[in-house]
Amino acid sequence: MSETSPLRLADSRRPAADSAASARTDVADDTRLAVEIRELVGRGAVDEAHERFALLVANHQRRASRIAFQYLRDSAEADEAVQDAFVKAFSHIATYREAWPFEVWFTRVLINGCLDRRKARARRDRWLVPADDVGLGDAQRSIAGTIPIDPEQRLLARERRHRLASAVDQLDGRQRTIFMLCHYADFTAREVSAMTGLNESTVRVHLFRAARKLRAILERKG
Amino acid sequence: MSMHSPHLHDDRLLEHYATERTGEPGISAVANHLALCVDCSGRYTALKEWLDGARSEAIAEADEIFTADRLKRQQHQILRRIEHLGQPARVLSFPGRLGQTFRRGSARVAPRWLAAAAAAGLFVGVAVGGAFFEVGLRHGGLTARRSVQTKTPPNVIVPGTSDEDAFLSDLELALERRGAGELEPLDELTPHLRGVSAQLR
Lengths: 222, 201
Fold this sequence. Notes:
The complex is a heterodimer.
Chain A: H1 20-43, H2 46-72, H3 75-91, H4 102-125, H5 138-144, H6 151-169, H7 173-184, H8 189-196, H9 200-221
Helix pairs in contact in A: 1-2, 2-3, 2-4, 2-7, 3-4, 4-8, 6-9, 7-9, 8-9
Chain B: H1 10-21, H2 28-36, H3 38-65, H4 68-83, H5 96-103, H6 109-138, H7 143-151, H8 162-176, H9 184-189, H10 193-200
């Protein structure tokens, strides 16, 4: 599906304040679409359901990839986690209820998958040397055209990102999840509360603690 | 604002930042205070810069990896996997001739006989071995064992380890077994740790 789908929400929602109203409409569109897919699957119109689901994939995959990458810090594994989450979402679409937007439900599926992968990796790392992978090589990324061409800038950016990622990794599990979802994926405390099953005020407390702790870690290092 | 300080707490600033960024209506009391207080306004600006910077770094890093091409490939892969959902797994046919050979009744007789013979051999071996061991013990045929035991240095036991506990518990169990009394002459011949330690002192 093209990236310019009218139902696209993942990026349009991000710049926040000014586009908030339209973003909410997109969320509602996605939820309607998910309900439609559920009905199509129920009726056995699988081909049509696949077509509609492709729209949902296009709308959510960028944000899903960002979240998965922040969790796993490994591009190949993040890719697999996103794929698994979408496949799981489709195969369990019958259990989707419109009480929450599709993206909240889907993100919950994704996070659970990422957490399982982190656990499995921790077990593996006890016996094997972990691979030093942050995705593509620098050369390949330069071809993509988004990475700074200047080697010094590239090195500094890489260093900054590495410091930030390792600081985020030092947060405890809940704080990390909440910080990523609120700060990187722009979910509200209410949405994160629905995903994690935590009280909304608890989400806020974890978010504040995470931000304070992160700042302290980064200031200590830098 | 707290009761004791005229300035906003960091958590209030964070809350204001979070609500502002997600497009929810900001906290008006905080916004009013920020408009009037230079200190808090400066702190808020610094906090906002730091959080925005961290966010844009993280997003840029992920977006550099997940390029449009890669996302397209990912989408293609997802749709392919979804299309195959619910389809029964494809069964690969096993080479027919080989399967037929094993299905013939006569071919199964030999392995059964072999298994029975192997089990019988094992049983006889264990029984005969046990009988020889008993006879050997009664007739003092322990010269080889004695030489092995006397060669063992007495200080191989590392005190204070769990291995030591296990070893000692094995030893106690062995002493309670039938026939342990016959090993007492051998025990007297071997040096004891206590004795060796005393000599060393």
